[in-house]
């Protein structure tokens, strides 16, 4: 099984659910981040449609969203990954022999058994609810979070990617390191991207498999750095960041010289504020990448 079983009891507690209906996802992975984008998901295969109807009628709309390892139309139990997401299916609407719905993805779930003997695929799962990170490990998690945020912001800059105001708010207000990593992974994900500038569904599944928040942060950080390598034409990210530090140092020296010649008090205040911002940005880079030296 892909999930690290030792992590199941280290930070969080489990709830066992038996016979939950399963919706197989082809080349797509959902992370437990609450309400899905307004476009939602669609169930088109007969077994998936039956699973949606059964969940709505008999299970308070709850189902397991579980990604397939391949694009098979008739997958067997061996064709699914071991970790999925328990979700509540909302706003169902039948259109052209399909059912569209909005999933509210709530929790990771580790599959212990799959049963395809009936009209729908069902699973026995252990639901994972993340607990707080021990105080002795918070400092490491915070450092990893800062490194990841720095890499992600640079990725957005190079990829000309701008988050919506809602996404920016959600990311800025996220206090749980594991969900913080999930959010950034989701923002870096784009299905069927031929340019390799976004995460694939296989990579997103690796994020889903990472039950330990610190492991998840490190995994998403490494993936984000790989995306940056692609954006920089396989050049050295460290070299680029080192050059950025050099330019920041030169700019600070220029501002210092300019400050000596200015007489306008208002401009002096603005210049001082700009120097503080540049210093803070330089410090974040150096703290996030200790090996860098301008």
Give the key terms:
alpha+beta, Archaeosine Trna-guanine Transglycosylase, Chain: A, domain 4, Methane Monooxygenase Hydroxylase, Chain G, domain 1, 294 residues, elongated
Q: Explain this structure to me?
A:
The protein is an alpha+beta fold. It has three domains: 5-130, LON domain-like (Archaeosine Trna-guanine Transglycosylase, Chain: A, domain 4, Roll), CATH 2.30.130; 135-231, Up-down Bundle (Methane Monooxygenase Hydroxylase, Chain G, domain 1), CATH 1.20.58; 237-288. It is 46% helix and 22% strand. It has a five-stranded mixed barrel. The radius of gyration is 23 Å and the shape is elongated. The protein starts with 11 loop residues before the first strand and ends in a 6-residue tail after the last helix.
Strand order of the largest sheet: 1-4-5-6-7
Portion in beta strands: 15-25%
Shape: elongated
Structural class by secondary-structure content: alpha+beta
Number of domains: 3
- Number of helix segments? 8
State the CATH topology of the largest domain: Archaeosine Trna-guanine Transglycosylase, Chain: A, domain 4
- Helix content class: 40-55%
First-to-last CA distance: 45 Å
Give the strand tally. Answer: 7
Low-confidence stretches: 1-9
One letter per element, helices H and strands E, the order comes to EEEHEEEEHHHHHHH
Biggest pleated sheet: 5 strands, mixed, barrel
CATH architecture of the largest domain: Roll
Question: What is the rounded Rg?
Answer: 23 Å
* Mean of all residue-level pLDDT scores: 83
Q: CATH superfamily of the largest domain, called what?
A: LON domain-like
Text of the CATH class of the largest domain: Mainly Beta
